Amino acid sequence: MFHCCEDESIQHLMFDCVVARVVWDKFEYTTGFKIGSFLDLAQHWLNDMIFTHCIWLNMNQVWGKILRNLKDWLQLLQGEAQVALSAHICWIVQELRAPSLLPPIP
Predict the structure, then answer these.
(1) Rounded distance, CA 94 to CA 97, Å?
(2) Is the backbone of residue 79 left (phi > 0), alpha (psi -120 to 50) or beta?
């Protein structure tokens, strides 16, 4: 494992660390997408990698795809990160099953 003098926050470990930067630089070179934050990753993951060439009939399809991908990622994680992602997945499922407080959009 690599250790440096920087604060080992999630942002640092995933994007700012020298090792992470090498990975994201190679990703940028290969794909043309610059990734420097979770927002960048989410935009490209959702818009370009996951939903490419798909016609979505409804939001259930979109949320189903997102949840399937999150569950796949869950298997790659361990410890605290796995528990945190599992809690987020449960929250999303709970919110999707809850009756909407807003009237339906015509």
Answers:
(1) 5
(2) left
